[in-house]
Design brief:
Elements lengths: L4 H17 L3 H4 L4 E2 L7 E4 L4 H4 L3 H11 L5 E6 L2 E6 L1 H15 L13 E5 L13 H17 L3 E8 L4 H13 L8 H17 L1 H15 L3 H25 L5 E4 L8 H9 L3 E4 L2 E4 L11 E3 L7 H16 L3 E5 L5 H13 L8 E4 L4 E2 L11 H21 L8 H18 L7 E2 L2 H4 L7 H17 L15 H22 L4 H18 L16 H24 L9
Parallel strand pairs: 5-6, 5-11, 6-7, 11-12, 13-14
Antiparallel strand pairs: 1-2, 2-4, 3-4, 8-9, 9-10
Helix pairs in contact: 5-18, 5-20, 6-18, 7-8, 7-9, 8-9, 9-10, 14-15, 17-19, 17-20, 18-19, 18-20, 19-20
Length: about 575
């Protein structure tokens, strides 16, 4: 895939500057930044050159600007800066052509060609409900998977289920006490059982010990215990698959901690050789230098049962052997930061140098979440409530003549889901955020519905204008607002690459808001001046060019929304 329009011009500007200065392009590449829109598109500061050249920065900038020539860029000095601005042509035509040629793939690239990334995300626990807080790992991971696929990576998405451990013992002994045999395949009933069992275990050590004993039976391959575990696991998986289908999320692999049952002893033996193990209060721990008050890495409890860390070590080794990954990402809450630091540290101490390619993609918490049903925040409850609230807004807009749709229920589902997804992904992943229904479902402002409406608006304009013209003259798009839209569109390939490199889907979310805002400013120009309307009267050449720009905006919005897993309705 050829470099994006934006990247190609930036590279040409960097190389021209480097040639003029007599230095390698790599030496100044990081110094070329986006410029203030009032001054251009790229900017290069000359302050670092002042000492060596013994000249004032403005004088250096003026001399550079005179000598730097890049076809398609207007290069000028502005005080101590050398600024470059896209010339109207051929930039305008190149952006429109690139979007038209790539369609839904616009924004992608091939930097990941021949490389593999493993992404561990979502990862709910068996026999527990998928709660609303799972939305963070699920949608951040889904966004990262989409970003890497767009850049040519082979993605191995893994839903690493918590299907092994004492918590399953709680479900099993809880079912013996509270279960209804007629509802043993009912996920909601298993959740009820778990809640009761967990509460009782906290109050009665003897009951908690029964749960631990059941798990020991599982690890000892007890036939009866494993049969019950398998039955309840399959019940959970059926429920999970229904929810993931609704979210539009697919995984290459649905694997659990149980996958590594019976495969951990070789790992423990390897650790015993390097870096070593030792006993502590009957438990087996990794022999590492620990910081003061740092808990040790436990491989086995004093009863011989394994732990999450043991299984994660086995899983990491297995994934590298299976996929030979170039990157392995764990999309897990910040709360688990110590666990992953220790996991990577142990692997490195074992001599597994590829551990340096493993990254904990941490994220913050969601605050302020509640539903009309109360404070039990299940993901399905939130999605259902989002659809109900969205349906109310859809009906209001239909009655007010502001919206048209043949499928109000389907549109409400798309809007509700888009609101939840974007409400999460617009935030920097490492920060906490406060959930607010009015904010996420607003049709104006920084919201999913606002972006979906922006996309639907472009579709509506194209329908009214008779569709995309077969030919047009890009040079007619001379309005500053038209050029601002084009510049926003041109940035998407760069944003996608930066979002993947920094593991930050919010970059795409923020770009979507920028593009939607630029197009809104452009579209509303016609309210004051009829000659600036997209569907301008009595000027077919200008109308054709503006329809081409509108279509490019539509395609770019659709590409960005799709990367975030958000539907793109054509009517709103």
């Amino acid at each position: 895939m050829t470099p994006s329009v934006y990247s190609r011009y930036r590279t040409a500007f960097v190389e021209a500057l480097a040639q003029s200065l007599g230095v390698p392009a790599s030496e100044i590449d990081s110094q070329v930044k986006p410029a203030d829109p009032a001054h251009g598109d790229f900017s290069f500061p000359t302050f670092p050159l002042a000492k060596a050249q013994k000249k004032a920065p403005p004088a250096i900038a003026a001399a550079l600007a005179q000598g730097v020539k890049v076809p398609g860029l207007e290069v000028v000095a502005a005080g101590p800066y050398v600024n470059a601005k896209f010339a109207l042509m051929p930039f305008t035509a190149e952006v429109l052509d690139a979007v038209r040629a790539q369609g839904k793939r616009y924004g992608g690239g091939d930097v990941g060609a021949g490389k593999t990334v493993v992404i561990d995300y979502s990862s709910p626990n068996i026999a527990k409900p998928i709660a609303f807080h799972h939305i963070r790992s699920t949608m951040i991971g889904h966004g990262l998977a989409n970003l890497h696929r767009a850049l040519g990576y082979k993605v191995e998405g893994i839903n690493y289920l918590g299907d092994w451990g004492k918590q399953f013992g709680l479900v099993a002994v809880g079912f013996q006490e509270y279960g209804d045999p007629a509802r043993r395949k009912d996920m909601a009933h298993l959740v009820e059982v778990y809640v009761k069992a967990n509460k009782r275990a906290e109050a009665e050590p003897a009951f908690d010990e029964r749960a631990r004993d059941f798990f020991r039976r599982m690890e000892a391959n007890d036939t009866e215990a494993l049969a019950l575990w398998k039955e309840f696991r399959e019940t959970s998986l059926r429920d999970f698959e229904r929810i993931y289908a609704r979210l539009g999320v697919k995984f290459e692999h649905m694997e659990g901690e149980s996958f590594y049952q019976g495969k951990m002893e070789p790992v423990i033996d390897e650790i015993a050789r390097k870096p070593g193990i030792k006993q502590s209060e009957g438990a087996t721990i990794v022999d590492l230098p620990y910081e003061e008050n740092e808990p040790p890495v436990l491989l086995k409890k004093n009863d011989g049962s394994t732990l999450y860390a043991t299984r994660d070590l086995a899983a990491a080794i297995d994934r590298h052997e299976r996929f030979h990954f170039d990157k392995a990402l764990y999309v897990v809450a910040t709360d688990q930061a110590l666990h992953f630091r220790q996991l990577f540290r142990v692997l490195k101490a074992m001599g597994r140098e590829w551990s340096e390619r493993m990254v904990h993609v941490n994220f913050g918490r969601v605050h302020g979440m509640s539903t009309r049903k109360g404070n039990v925040v299940l993901l399905t409850d939130v999605l259902d409530e989002a659809r109900v609230r969205a349906r109310e807004k859809v009906q209001e807009n239909i009655q007010a003549g502001k919206m048209q749709t043949d499928d109000p229920e389907g549109l409400a589902e798309q809007i509700g889901m888009g609101a939840i997804f974007f409400g999460d992904l617009k935030n920097r992943r490492t920060t906490d955020y406060t959930f607010d229904w009015d904010d996420v479902l607003a049709f104006e402002g920084h919201s999913g519905p606002y972006l979906q409406y922006a996309h639907a608006r472009t579709c509506n304009v194209l329908r009214k204008g008779g569709g995309v013209p077969a030919s047009y003259d890009a040079a007619l798009l001379t309005l500053p607002e038209e050029q601002a839209v084009l510049r926003a569109i041109a940035r998407l390939p760069v944003v996608v690459q930066e979002a993947a490199e920094q593991l930050e889907p919010s970059f795409v979310a923020r770009w979507l808001l920028d593009l939607a805002a630029e197009f809104s400013r452009y579209y509303t120009l016609g309210n004051q001046d009829r000659s600036k309307r997209v569907l301008v009267d009595d000027n077919e050449p200008v109308k054709a060019a503006r329809l081409a720009l509108t279509d490019a905006t539509r395609a770019a919005l659709a590409a960005g929304l799709t990367l975030l897993g958000i539907a793109t309705p054509e009517n709103m």
